Amino acid sequence: MNHLDLKEAITKGETSLGIELGSTRIKVVLIDRQFETIASGSYEWENLLKDGYWTYNQEDIITGLQTAYREMKQQVEQNFGVTLQTVGSIGFSAMMHGYMAFDNKGELLVPFRTWRNATTGAAARELTDLFQFNIPERWSIAHLYQAILNQEEHLPRIDFVTTLAGYIHWLLTGHKVIGIGDASGIFPIDEATHDYHPAMVKQFDERIAAKGYPWKLEDLLPKVYLSGEQAGELTEAGAKLLDPARDLQSGIPLCAPEGDAGTGMVATNSVKKRTGNISVGTSVFAMIVLEKELAKVYPEIDMVTTPDGSPVGMVHANNCSSDLNAWIGLFREFSETMGFNVDSGELFSKLLNKALEADPDGGGLLSYGYLSGENITGIDKGRPLFVRSPESNFNLANFMRTHLFTAFGALKLGMDILTENEKVAIDSILAHGGLFKTPVVGQKMLAAALNVPISVMSTAGEGGAWGMALLASYLINKDQDQSLEHFLGEKVFKDVEGQEITPDATDVSGFEAFIQRYQAGLAIEQAAVYHMLENGRG
In Gene Ontology terms, what is a biological process of this protein (predicted)? Predict the structure, then answer.
């Protein structure tokens, strides 16, 4: 579309808005009917460890939402001379899982407990045994049940439990709803009914009946919606909250709120069976759309769904790029101390590319980027760790390769269960996330780790907010009865090109040597947890 056509589309509201609250950034993306980004805005934020829980301040949620929206709106004004007053549709997404519990006045009862917390181990184990279905520590139901085990004071007052995306949608529409993908991180989903599994809901209520709480589980949970279904409209209060300048009109239709796993699948056209995608950021997770149920329950594999309800095997590692980013920050500090002002993008690119010069196995070095506990390897607290022996080949190239390898270490262990134990067939895997802004390197390391071809689309940098905007667009622009799979394949990604990198045999054997060292060294990591207290003193 040319400039005048875009200006007219903006004025008429022939657009869709996607907003995603990620772990390090809130991003807003406005797209046209050709799914191209018109304008965007963002807000950087960080979780904090408060009273033993990883959380975000409730005030920061609203401030970040408004700041990112305002930045996008200003971009529209600067580029098109138009004050944004309406859009065709809106969708919200956020990091999946976690726990937000509210009373009947809408007050948050305890600070938001994010996916990053590894505080629900006992609850996850008990519920997994009860349901004979894997309940990960991150899931909302695990947080709720752990609060019950802990006999927390807020429990009798609970009126509503939801995720971060569900909370934002509720604020802006008044509707307590959730997309099925995000719902599958709250409580197990029945594939036949596309709703919470009724037998398991009953089992949960029976398990806690003696506690005498004045609620049943189904009374607390948001209503489940599929992609393509309208899940409310923007209220006047919601429009004012999102745009305090009061230019945005109410009445805009909203699709169901989704989790970042679902938007990642949409943004990479990975919602059909035998496809998969890997999202790389603070955490890393692989989503493989399954042809059939797994043969047994695995604590390392989450069973979730696509936004249109297909079963997905999810391997979620709590830690990925945070420690790598911290080391690159140290190199930036060094360069500034030496009087060099290095562009951040150039610094990342040069350091990551050094990994291509390294020994195949990283020179005998070992690292664990565990800023938080890691469920796949059974580590319950974060202790970033770098280890080497006197014989290790300690140079910059090996240092960088080791930190890239370890970013995918826990993911590799979980993926092996799907590909080796369950013989899951995967036709394609697409990767996305900031790490892939530097061409080739991250893709090549990931291909070595999983020993499968890895593709990165030209749209990979658009991220989850763009994926959420696509779900919002699907709500109003799909053909009658058109499935999400066909909408994406026939309309959105029809002419999108991708770059595929196949595994290099030398890199694969190098990663295998590294992962053996990684598994053997977990005892070192566990010792660090045991001997190094929270304040860094033993």
Answer: carbohydrate metabolic process
